[in-house]
Design brief:
The complex is a heterodimer of chains A (about 600) and B (about 220). With about 600 residues, chain A is an alpha+beta fold. Chain A contains six helices and 30 strands. In chain A, strand 9 and strand 10 form a beta hairpin. In chain A, helix 3 packs antiparallel against helix 4, helix 4 packs antiparallel against helix 5 and helix 5 packs antiparallel against helix 6. Chain A is globular, with a radius of gyration of 25 Å. Chain B is mostly helical. Chain B has a single domain, classed as Ferritin (Up-down Bundle), CATH 1.20.1260. A two-stranded antiparallel ribbon of chain B has the order 1-2. The chains are: A alpha+beta (about 600), B mainly alpha (about 220).
Chain lengths: ~600, ~220
């Protein structure tokens, strides 16, 4: 059976290969400049170095049977896409791509170009499919708030009634491009309660809460597609700003959703967040183009691909095609730009993730749009990468770059994509999707020296041709990492200890449990004063030579006793006082060490004493 | 080479018709037996989807207009490759080669994408010299394409004169591509399938920006 399949594919493959070879030879014959095109050359010089023993090199290809490599993680399950949400003939049918993930209560929501799925996480290791919802429109970017599920629709086939037949007329009242809102309070009968139509549809969206407004939630719509004709949606036009001041370009839409009447959701603002503060020119940011010889060609800033909000600190980071921007969202309806950055290595500002402290932001560059191989040895390590910025007084400063540290093949689409923070106290860790480059956990505590902590990678879908696939997003939620694989389904992982991450650090991360998680609305993590958290800090101090060797057994012993319930408050306070003394000496310059972490550990010890 | 150049427009189709896609990996088993529902319009109840109709969930397929668009855009891109190939030997201004090289890379990637799209659907793939046959008058030019006289004019120009002509002709050429996208989206039932929608949207976005940039370059001369 398998042999027959292989020979069948080989036969058909040979036919197409001939077509492509002939095509290539014809193009090559007429193209004087063909030889100069570096990105197409597999023999180009490597632009970075990597561990030659990295197990991710030369993994065997396959759809559901590819070889894989893993470090610092354990895979606990692998759930294929359900029936009706894939095309058995090919892994690369864009109508069924898995997209983003969202979490609420015991359920996981998996977006898909064809609708979404609801998985029961009663056993967090093994998502059980509870319901599949057919509602095409792409890209199915998904968020959840209580009983409300929000989903992006951008394609011209999207229908108000979730029909699969598309919309035949080029102007039609049946078409839906924007954000759909579903009520899932009755899981067996989700109901679409609202469909917010927008001029450019919704490529992504961001759920936003206003800490002072418990009656509404808000949605920022990020549209990136073509503008609909005004005949279909009144008020829509897509001209250049000098000729068309009301253009649907150069803005986002803000939707207010009354929680007690979500059917009344409506667009309440369309802020011009790229405007030049002095001239008022709505096209006030990057105009598109390169930044000089040898630099990247950066798209112009007329849209945000994604915005990540951090309500607790009142800030949002916008990855807005040509720029990274910082928004003050203390007034949620009227986001106000307070800073913007450019980067000569960035092609397309795609997504953003804050660290827990709100002092850093990781921007990703989706060079090649996600469908191209951009992690080859010949691709620059600062292109298609993360750029890590520090934030101080509302200003962003470039700290460094991080890219998948091992090359991928020509048939693996690969570039920086979506991820989230792993709540290890005292460190900035992010688990991130790299499409067919797999997932990589990055430590960006020191932005200038970000490094890899753990990884998982599969071989390509095919060794012969590039089929789009791999991880769309990989997110931490309540002790597990959930990976949304475009063409393979959902993977679940747990962290395992390595020299880069201790069991105590993993324990401290796993004890953070939250009810709801939407990656673009970052939650603030506050670690409780418990033994695993103290042990995590101790492990970090030992690893980083931040603590006197003599102190280590004292701290370890008191933590063991605290765990058994035999440490008194006085004893804990004594050890804490020692650590404070050391920190003071370090700050005075009389001794080396990590004063800040010692003080933090001392504080946890005191709080352990009650 | 000559015998290949003279291949009729669709001679490669007999090869393509039976091809699925090279290297297609073997298919997985999905998660079966779970309830599938389809919501209604806002405020309406959801309906259970009969799992016997699983195939129907795949819904709409591509249309004839989609195929026409892809078949037309391949020679359209083919001509752009001929134009950008002239740049290294003829242009002198800094930054000009970079512009041409980027266009060349993206148009070549897109030609591959279009050929694969057609091959996977067992549709005919145009010959790579189809744009020259169009210029020779054997077939109608696609919107914005240079005719034989204009191409000759560009070929014989050098230096700044070449650059000016290149920009003017490439703007015209790109505007033709935007027209083709408009025609696609204005056609009944077209541009609906995910890949076609994404590709046509990308062409629209990328070439709009390139037109703006080329206009700026013309103004700055």
């Amino acid at each position: 059976m398998i042999l027959e399949q292989i020979s069948g594919f080989t036969h058909r493959g040979a036919a197409l290969a001939m077509v492509l070879v002939m095509t290539a030879s014809l193009i090559g014959g007429f193209s004087e400049a063909a030889a100069q095109i570096a990105p197409d050359s597999v023999e180009a010089e490597p632009l970075f170095t990597w561990d030659p023993n990295d197990p991710r090199l030369e993994l065997g290809a396959g759809w559901m049977d590819a070889e894989s490599a893993i470090r610092g993680l354990e895979q606990v399950s692998e759930i294929p896409r359900p029936d009706g949400f894939f095309n058995p003939a090919t892994p690369d049918d864009g109508r069924f791509s898995n997209t983003d993930l969202a979490f609420e209560g015991q359920y996981l929501y998996q977006g898909n170009y064809n609708g979404f799925q609801i998985y029961d996480l009663e056993d967090p290791n093994t998502p059980m499919l509870a319901l599949s919802v057919v509602c095409p429109g792409g890209q199915g970017d998904i968020s959840v708030y209580g009983d409300l599920v929000f989903m992006s629709a951008q394609e011209t086939r999207g229908r108000l009634d979730c029909g699969i037949e598309g919309v035949t007329d080029s102007i039609s009242a049946e078409r839906m491009r924007g954000v759909r809102i579903f009520d899932v309070s009755d899981l067996s009968n989700p109901m679409q309660v609202a469909a917010i139509q927008s001029c450019r549809g919704s490529h992504t969206h961001t759920l936003v809460i206003d800490p002072d407004d418990s009656e509404n939630v808000y949605v920022y719509i990020q549209g990136t597609s073509s503008v609909r004709p005004t005949e279909e949606l009144p008020g829509c036009s897509g001209g250049e700003p000098d000729e068309d001041p009301n253009t649907a370009l150069f803005r986002i839409e803000v939707v207010r959703v009354p929680l007690n009447a979500p059917e009344n959701a409506e667009i309440v603002n369309m802020p011009r967040i790229f405007a030049d503060a002095e001239t008022g020119n709505i096209a006030g940011l990057w105009a598109g183009g390169d930044h000089g010889a040898g630099t990247q060609d950066t798209r112009r800033t007329h849209q945000c691909h994604d915005i990540t909000v951090y309500p607790e600190i009142g800030l949002a980071a916008g990855a807005c095609s040509g720029n990274g921007i910082l928004l003050d969202i203390s007034d949620v309806v009227n986001p106000r730009r307070i800073d913007e950055v450019l980067d000569p290595n960035f092609a397309y500002w795609h997504s953003a993730t804050f660290n827990n402290g709100g002092t850093k932001v990781v921007f990703t560059d989706e060079w090649g749009g996600g469908g191209q191989a951009r992690c080859r040895a010949s691709d620059p390590p600062t292109w298609g990468a993360n750029a890590i910025f520090t934030i101080e007084n509302g200003e962003m400063t470039l700290g460094g770059y991080y890219k998948l540290p091992v090359p991928q093949t020509e048939t693996e689409n690969c570039v920086a994509h979506n991820g989230s923070i792993i709540p290890v106290p005292g460190r900035d860790l992010m688990v991130q999707a790299w499409y067919q480059g797999g997932l990589s956990i990055m430590d960006f505590t020191d932005p200038a020296n970000a490094f890899e902590v753990a990884f998982f990678d599969r071989g390509p879908l095919s060794a012969e041709a590039l089929f789009t696939g791999g991880y769309w997003s990989t997110y931490w939620h309540n002790g597990r990492i959930y990976g949304a694989e475009i063409s393979r389904g959902i993977d679940v992982f747990r962290l395992t200890p390595t020299e880069h991450l201790s069991q105590a650090e993993i324990d401290a991360a796993e004890l953070i449990q939250i009810d709801q998680f939407n990656a673009q609305m970052q939650p603030l993590t506050v670690w409780p004063a418990v033994v695993p958290v103290a042990r995590a800090y101790l492990d970090q101090l030992v690893r980083g030579n931040g603590i006197l060797n003599d102190r280590v057994p004292d701290v370890a012993n008191i933590l063991d006793r605290a765990e058994r319930g035999t440490a008194t408050a006085t004893q804990l306070a004594q050890v804490a006082a020692q650590l404070d003394q050391d920190a003071t000496a370090i700050r005075a310059g009389t001794r080396g060490g990590d004063a800040e972490r010692l003080s933090t550990l001392a504080e946890v010890l005191r709080n352990l004493g009650g | 080479m000559n015998s290949k150049v003279l291949l009729p427009f669709y001679v490669l189709s007999t090869l393509a018709v039976t091809s699925s896609c090279m290297g297609t990996p073997s298919a997985p088993a999905g998660t079966t037996g779970t309830r599938i529902i389809q919501p209604g319009a806002p405020g309406e109840m959801a309906q259970a989807f009969d799992t016997a109709e699983l195939d129907a969930i795949r819904g709409l397929e591509y249309s004839e207009a989609d195929v026409r668009f892809m078949r037309g855009m391949i020679p359209h891109h083919g001509q752009a490759l001929d134009m950008t190939a002239m740049v290294p030997a003829r242009a002198t201004t800094d930054g000009f080669s970079g512009l041409a090289l980027r266009m060349q890379i993206s148009q070549r990637d897109e030609i591959r994408l279009m050929e694969r799209w057609l091959a996977e659907r067992e549709e005919k793939i145009p010959a790579t010299n189809a744009h020259r046959m169009m210029m020779a008058g054997d077939m109608a030019l696609m919107p914005g394409m240079l005719n034989a006289g204009q191409m000759e004019q560009l070929t014989s120009a050098t230096g700044r004169e070449f650059e000016r002509l290149f920009l003017e002709f490439m703007i015209m050429h790109h505007e033709g591509a935007l027209t083709m996208v408009q025609t696609l989206f204005n056609s009944s039932g077209a541009g609906q399938e995910s890949l076609i929608f994404k590709f046509a949207s990308d062409v629209d976005a990328d070439q709009t920006i390139e037109i703006l940039r080329m206009r700026r370059m013309l103004e700055e001369r």
